[in-house]
């Protein structure tokens, strides 16, 4: 989350306000299970901005 790093453990959560740039990584050896919960009047996928291409350009 914009310059922050957090380690979440089992049954922990994080809230990301709208427009927050974020990245998810799993440094562990156990598979990650992610449950995404969206709120608001519109929940379509077309309002999501993917940053993979920008990330690849910056970090190769």
Automatic annotation (TrEMBL):
Gene3D superfamilies: Jelly Rolls
Coiled coil: none
Gene Ontology process terms (BP): GDP-mannose biosynthetic process; polysaccharide metabolic process
Molecular function per GO: mannose-1-phosphate guanylyltransferase (GTP) activity
Record InterPro entries: Man6P_isomerase-2_C, Mannose-6P_isomerase_type2, RmlC-like_jellyroll, RmlC_Cupin_sf
Pfam (any one): MannoseP_isomer
Residue ranges annotated for the Mannose-6-phosphate isomerase type II C-terminal domain, each copy included: 2-52
Stated name of the protein: Mannose-6-phosphate isomerase type II C-terminal domain-containing protein
Source species of the chain: Inquilinus limosus
């Amino acid at each position: 989350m914009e310059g922050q790093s957090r380690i979440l453990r089992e049954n922990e959560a994080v809230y990301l306000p709208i427009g927050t740039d974020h990245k998810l990584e799993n440094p562990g050896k156990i598979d990650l299970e992610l449950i995404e919960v969206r709120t608001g009047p519109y929940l379509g996928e077309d309002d999501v901005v993917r940053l993979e291409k920008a990330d690849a350009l910056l970090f190769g």
